[in-house]
Amino acid sequence: MAGNLPSKFIIGSLITLFCLFLLAQIILSSALTLGSKTLPKEKKSKVTAVERIQPIGQVYIGDASVVPQQIVEIDEDISSGQKITTAVCSRCHGSGLMKSPKIGKEKDWTARLKKGKATLYANAINGINKMPARGGKKSLSDGDVKAAVDHMLASLK
Ligand code: HEC
Predict the structure, then answer these.
(1) Atom of ligand 1 nearest to the CA of 144
(2) For residue 11, what are the CA distances in angstroms to 7, 15, 16?
(3) In angstroms, rounded to a whole number, what is the distance separating the alpha carbons of residues 112 and 133?
(4) Is the CB–ligand 1 distance for residue 145 below 6 Å?
(5) Is the C-beta atom of 124 inside 6 A of ligand 1?
(6) From CA 92, how far away is CA 152, in angstroms rounded?
(7) Are 125 and 134 a contacting pair, CB within 8 Å?
(8) How confident is the model over 92-114, as pLDDT tens digits?
């Protein structure tokens, strides 16, 4: 019997090893299935792999297609008459400086409107009394000054 002991020991240890191997297999496979079960959950989360690999410190410039449209809209809304009035004429006509007819104040314009638009244009272009020719800005064209006059008169209605 003593001679059988080593072989019994070997067989016993082999069985034990086999059992351990099986156990390891079970643990490993269950770990794998657990892992694969958690994967779809991660996919559902809003952070995608693409987002994870984005560089840090990106500048958000909004929807690029929207930005140029807004600029175009602003350009359309502000007429050249309004721009010139704001930049040149409102210096005096905004507050009624030097008794100039005030923008938007109908009473200041009624007597002047009776002269006719053509006269108002001409006086704005050539100047009258303290009203400097072209509002003091010589680079303005006749059309620019007329547009500014039109804008001032439109603000009365
Ligand atoms: C330095 C101040 C000043 C600036 C700048 C100015 N004006 Fe005048 N404006 C006057 C004064 C003062 C009067 C009144 C003149 C008067 O009737 O004695 C006047 C009068 C006018 C009148 C009425 C003219 C009339 O026949 O009754 C028009 C139109 C006019 N301005 C247009 C403009 C326009 C357009 C601009 C800008 C391009 C402008 N003004 C810039 C001072 C100014």
Answers:
(1) 38
(2) 6, 6, 8
(3) 17
(4) yes
(5) yes
(6) 12
(7) yes
(8) 999 999 999 999 999 999 999 99
